[in-house]
Amino acid sequence: MSHNASEVVARPIDRVRPGLLFVSFTLLLLVGLTLPNAAAPDLGPRGWAPGTLLPFTLSPAAVTAAVWTAYTLGAAGVALAVWRRGSELPRPVVALLAVAAALTAPFGSGDHLSYAAYGRILALGDNPWLVSPATYRGGLDPVVSAVEAPWREEPSVYGPFATLLQGLTSLGGGDNLRQTVWLWQLFCIAAWLTIRWVLRRMLPGREARIDALWTANPLVFSFGVLGAHVDLVAAALLVLTVWAVHRYAGLPGAALAGTFAALALSSKFTYAVVLLALVLAFRERRVARSAVLVGSAVVVAGALHWWAGPHVYDQLGRSARAVALASPWRWALEQSGGGASVRSLISMLAALAAIGFAFCLHRLARSNAVESVVAQPDSAPTTNVGARALTWVAVLGGGYALAAPYSLPWYDVMVWAALPAVPVAVGVGAGSVVDLVLLARLWIMGLAYALGRVVGMTPAVEDLTMTFRTRVAPVALLLVWGWLVTSAVRAGSRRPSAGPPRGS
């Protein structure tokens, strides 16, 4: 009787999630399909690329309300999937989302304008790591001049491989900004689909979890696909790195993985974490495979950086001590009066915190793996090298995202691409604290950087968003930190003694 009663209660709950996700995705696509607004920069004449489908614009207040609502409903839908175990997404729905994304204009930041500019500078034979958009050709270039503040004075911060891809989009788009950006959007959509395809092959039996956390996650879809961020392309290369080791055994797989890893870290340097994750995941022939993995990565990345020249990461060095407004570390910076020594101290403390948070995430994942083995031995977590490596990516990347002084919501794309591999406890309602902690972090950061631009807002909307970013978000993130630490402590104290966990 109790079993039947639980099914009766469960049915309405299970019907809520599709509705939440439908409204969330619809609101996000609405923002991208309308005319330029406070979240979506004007891309100029459409050329042969798709134009605006909905011939009206949204006010800054309407855009903020739509995005905040979409993120909140989307986070609730993902949380229900974590708690109730979501279902696999039908293939036509995935295709529909991909097509819809290709018809939108990117929003949530002006980063895609910078990508187009750096690609244009490279395609025209100049050095995007030395030339700033504001000074390029007297500020008259039809693509480069579109870069918005505060990035107009900044040369490229991206690696050589990402910049090569941006250069290809510039060659295809010519002097038309919309065409160039649309070609970049196609790269991002392909990356999103590639990650799903690869995960389904590395994590058999976890198709529903992959779709719940990745494909049908409105926050990931917004920041990665609709935002057209380079992080999505780098995340696809990271997942392909792990797939190479999973698909091809021994040293050949390690060499191919090293090549993909080099392309990932040559897009965005933080993606070098995949090398450490694979080294930790290797169990057999660890020394030989690790040497080939790292060696091939060094050769390929070295060749790309030699081609790009010595100034590739000049900007990275200058921005390494930045502290975001939404970060709890910002309070320490402001209360101390700032200064180089304070920023150095914050960087050091943040590095220690990242290690601590990664340890907490690992303990929780380990605890879930043990509980799964004890409760249902036949449902033990996947233990292949790909699953182990992705778990380490989620743990290490999640610790970094939580603790980093300067972090934006799209930086979390790497973590969510790997999160489906993390073990979860068995049983409806058990959920995963790892999933929920990282979801809370992503939701808070999404609300803090909903519009992602410093232009186009009314004073009232600017006051509202900045108040949330500088006052609410830091407190909320501190609470997330506390939730993670206390959960890890409790998990360590109650962990059953069943031997070493599988897949940890």
TrEMBL record:
Residue ranges of the TM segments: 20-40, 60-82, 89-108, 181-199, 219-243, 255-280, 287-308, 345-364, 385-402
Keyword NAD: no
UniProt KW Membrane keyword: yes
Highest taxon in the source lineage: Bacteria
A Pfam match: MptA_B_family
Keywords in alphabetical order: Membrane, Transmembrane, Transmembrane helix
Protein name, UniProt field: DUF2029 domain-containing protein
Lineage of source species: Bacteria, Bacillati, Actinomycetota, Actinomycetes, Micrococcales
